[in-house]
Design goal:
Blueprint (H helix, E strand, L loop, with lengths): L1 H6 L4 H12 L1 E3 L8 H10 L3 E5 L4 E6 L5 E3 L3 E7 L7 E3 L8 H10 L3 E6 L2 E6 L5 E3 L3 E7 L2
Length: 146
């Protein structure tokens, strides 16, 4: 390694620091929609730290976003939504087998928004039934002909 460092004309301590950073990088987990206590635990177990912005109990947004590769120890900003959490989280209903009109009604009643793909009867949805999501989340529903 030292021969490579000398060949590339990189100072040895700088090369060691670059290799250390590469070895200690982590992928930011997704904590959006989690209660703050749960989110902070996930962040900590990932080798990161967190800082809370705002008041509330549910993480509305995070920076850096989930999936980003960062150095271990990086601080993740957790933006909170006011409320107890129970009124901001909803369970995704099962809409499979229903018409687009019926799906729209079911999702609207649950506080969710429809993002339709195709026409006909609902054959697939994302997020899946039973998942807890933030109120107002778009549910992508795939429809196929009758």
């Amino acid at each position: 390694m030292q021969d490579v460092v000398r060949y590339l004309e990189i100072a040895p301590d700088k090369a060691a620091k670059q290799q250390t950073q590469k070895d200690t990088s982590v992928i930011v987990p997704n904590v959006t929609g989690l209660f703050i206590e749960d989110a902070e635990g996930v962040i900590l177990r990932s080798g990161l730290s967190s800082r809370v912005v705002g008041e509330g109990s549910v993480v509305l947004r995070q920076v850096p976003e989930s999936g980003a590769e960062v150095s271990q120890g990086t601080t993740v900003l957790l933006y909170l939504k006011e409320g107890t959490g129970s009124e901001t989280m909803v369970v995704v209903p099962d809409v499979l087998g229903n018409s687009m009109k019926k799906v729209s009604e079911i999702l609207s009643d649950a506080g969710l928004r429809l993002s339709p793909v195709g026409t006909g009867i609902a054959v697939k949805q994302d997020p899946m039934p039973g998942e807890s999501v933030l109120r107002g989340t778009k549910v992508e529903v795939y429809f196929e002909g009758r």
